[in-house]
Design goal:
Layout lengths: L1 H8 L6 H15 L2 H7 L4 E3 L2 E2 H21 L6 H10 L23 H16 L7 H12 L7 E2 L20 H11 L3 E2 L2 E2 L6 H18 L6
Helix pairs in contact: 2-5, 4-5, 4-9, 5-7, 5-9, 7-8, 7-9
This protein binds fe (ii) ion (FE2) (2 copies).
One fe (ii) ion binds next to helix 4.
Length: 224
């Protein structure tokens, strides 16, 4: 993985120091056994790209975009952007493995609409160190919840109604985090979905990176 990331960064003018910083933020998240499970080629996300690789692709591009926006005068918290990126799609089960997924009774509970909610719950369970500062973790939660923008996310009121695959983990989630999920997922509500975009620039950069890397993965574009 290190070689892959280094070869991706070699396409950009980026210093050794910046690459070291990237690894210092990303590696502790990447090394978690649950993240490792998602790097496996069986945990497919787009085309032949595993979920873990998709997240790494997103993080590399998010990092590059952060410097672009900073050079244009924007105030960007790179550490926050990388955390949102590394957590944004940590949903519960491979959605292509229909046997393992909860059967959905409503269209708005399909994977596309609810996977950000699963990702927040999993992130909170697996990376307790990241969720210490309340101001920061509201931004992380909101960034994860709305990373699919302009595609909407399911509004959460009663978690049971969302038919998520990791409902059982809610016992490990604080009421504060649950209330943040409800609040964030109900912004710009139309019927039972939210069309809101992320409240912070860092989340919007992750969302932009997500569109670009997803298209490359879906259409299997080769790097120049
Ligand atoms: Fe996603
Ligand atoms: Fe993604």
């Amino acid at each position: 993985m290190r070689e892959y990331i280094l070869s991706e960064f070699s396409k950009y003018k980026i210093s050794e120091e910046k690459i070291d910083y990237f690894f210092s933020v990303v590696s502790p998240i990447f090394m978690h056994p649950e993240f490792q499970k998602r790097v496996d080629s069986k945990f497919l996300h787009h085309g032949k790209t595993s979920l873990g690789m998709h997240i790494i692709n997103n993080s590399i591009l998010t990092y590059i975009l952060c410097f672009k926006f900073i050079s244009l005068g924007y105030d960007i918290d790179i550490d926050l952007a990388l955390k949102i990126s590394m957590l944004h799609d940590l949903y519960e089960v491979c959605y292509k493995d229909k046997e393992s997924c909860v059967k959905k009774s409503k269209v708005i509970n399909l994977h596309g609409f609810v996977h950000p909610i699963e990702a927040v719950i999993n992130s909170f369970c697996w990376y307790t160190d990241i969720f210490k500062d309340e101001d920061e973790y509201y931004k992380i939660i909101d960034g994860i919840i709305h990373h699919m923008w302009p595609f909407p996310v399911r509004c959460v009121n009663d978690f049971l109604d969302t038919e998520i695959n990791n409902y059982g983990k809610l016992v490990f989630i604080s009421d504060k985090v649950k209330s943040f999920i409800v609040e964030s997922s109900n912004r710009f509500k139309i019927f039972n979905v939210s069309f809101g975009k992320c409240i912070c620039s860092e989340g919007n950069i992750v969302s932009l990176a997500d569109k670009i890397v997803s298209l490359k993965e879906i259409f299997n574009f080769k790097n120049p």
